[in-house]
Amino acid sequence: MNSLNKLYISLIALLLVIMCPLQSAAKGNFWGDTVDYDIHEVQSPAAMEAGGTPVTSGSVSTNSIDKDKRVLKNIEIYGNNVIDTSVILDKMKMQSGDVYTRNAVQADLKAIYELGFFSEKMKAIPVNNSDGTVTLKIMLEENAPVTDFTIEGNTVVSTDEVLSYLMPMKGKPQNIAEINEAIAKIQECYSSKGYILARIDSVSDDPDGTVNISIKEGLIDKIMIAGNEKTKDYVIERNILTEPGMVYNENLLKQDLVRLYATQAFKDVTREIEPTENPDIYNITINVEEQRTASISVGGGVDSVTGVFGSVGIADNNFLGRAERISLNGIAGTGVILNDSSIKRRMNLQAELSYFKPYFYNADTSLMSKVFYRDFGSYQVPLAIERRVGAESTIAHRMKSNPHVTSTFTLGIENIDVSEGDKGKITTMYSRYNIPISERAKQLEGGLFLSLSPAVLYDTRDNATVTRKGTMASLRFDEEVGVIDFDKTHGKLTGMVKQYIPVGKKSSLSFTAKGGGKIHGDNMPEVMAYRLGGPYTVRGFKMSGVGTGDAFIMGSAEFATPIPFLDRTRINFLNNLRFTVWADAGKIFNPSITDKIYDRPLYAVSAGVGLKLYIPGMGPLSIDYGIPLTNPGDNGNRNGYFTFGVGDIMY
User: What is the CATH number of the domain that holds 198?
Assistant: First the structure.
């Protein structure tokens, strides 16, 4: 028995002696290739904050060998069922032929994880090949696939629009990066529509792969007003169309602030947004800074119709604290300044009392009323004195369906008195053209008229001060009912369209077309006829120098550009100054007696240059010099005329 034990001990000792060198040889690949595991654990998506960066850590087995540089032979990807292998390989920097290093593998694992489609259960296994190269096996586990989406809390943005940012992920493994990107796009969608307080409240997923999105859009709890002393609260409130309970919209509130500022009762209007105890509900405070609204003005100027004039006015833009405007203005001028033998030289006297109610039943409707008196040398009827006394009210309504469109209706009554200004000269002219002097009585006809005038306006101009692009158009029908003499009842239809085209950085090119005509009524007084010639019509001619008649058409083209260096100053007056080059053309139809005795051409083409500047409270002031390109008639001037115009006549 003892001898048998000794035999076993001897055999064990012999085996140990033999195995020791074999074990050492095995470390040198005596047994062939050895698999070296390089396992990298990556933080799970569930542990990450939305939009965060994953943190990686690696553990390497102690039996791996990195003494010699080994070349990567190929890369094998396992575990990807939906995501194409090429997508994964494109994210890896290591490629066949590169030197294999653990750091490079860790960087590539991190890049693969950042694709967002795979769980943290990924590892890289380098396999040493017999030729000394390495085959890298990437073992992946795809996230659970997205099967559907649910959206909660959206009221102002449709579910379909929200889903449009999410549906590209359906059927793919859940991807934190893509979900975060979709969330950012959803919030950008809200912001672009003005819903700047909207946010994604939560994102969760169900075991069946449904991703649930909860949205908080930002509701308004209260709207408060601060800073007003004279102005009534209801005046401010009626201009604020944003209401408690609505989802806050920055674009709509800006329109409210602009509407308040346009009342001219405030120097500044701002808003504050404060969260309530519920972080998804907010209080809005409208801060107003009132300005002095009552004013007395004294001024003067020059105009082709009024001549050299002086003006005085008193106004209040916040009458009784109701943001209503009342004004009384008077003008006294020398009369038409051009040397025109057809116009009686006399003072031009005008007075007007006006009242403007910006809120008439609703914020989109306004009321303008005025009473006026005018006494001047008529430029419609030759050598006559024209006196007009009247009153009118205009209701204007801005269309909700298209804020660029405004409809108006004007109701007015006006007494027009036309009297003789130079009987001797008129008698001579009538005799020269063999016209019976009895026709003069028809020229001097006026009357008491009730006017009914519906109209529609379209305005998309980018700026009313210096316009560079947009369209301005109008269409108006005037029904003038003879109150005392019904036979003088007539109707006229007038339209205008003006298109602005930007040129370069600061210049513009505009095209204008106007036309109008008498629709009915055979006894329309000459004083109410259409005219061409002078400012607002065909420049380079006297007032009515082209002719007067029952209908007209005209067109104009104008190029406006800043004056070099002046547009770079800090003075708004100089910044708004424009040099213009223009051409006008027009024609009168069914001419009056005046056109015959003054040999008016009835059609004309002219061209010229001018200056256009903007004066607050008056609008654009135009100073033009034009030269006729066609026959100006015996009473015209081939060398042309200066014309002065204030404002932009729509009809």
Answer: 3.10.20.310
